[in-house]
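Annex B.
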Amino acid sequence: MKKHEISVYLTKEMEPEYVISLVHEAIKFNSYILFQTKKLQLNAKSVLSMLGFSAFLEGHVVISAEGEDSLEAVKNLQDFLSPKCSKATSLA
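HPr domain-containing protein: predicted structure tokens.
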């Protein structure tokens, strides 16, 4: 399986509508996608998971995807999150 990660720095809080749109973006891909902070690991395709913990998704966040379309998934989510980010760094 292919695995790709990107590190983003979220500077703005995400409104519930934005989080739901983010989940819809993640669902478009077959890869398993996670949002990771130092304390949390969230399934990007789970509305409940993402809405429940979106307040904790500020600062350094790693988006990782594992699967055949993992590179496309992380790039798409990076673009989607760009209005909420100050910077992004590709990890692998």
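Residues 3-90 form a domain with the Histidine-containing Protein; Chain: A; fold (CATH 3.30.1340.10). The radius of gyration is 12 Å. Further annotation is deferred to the next reporting cycle.
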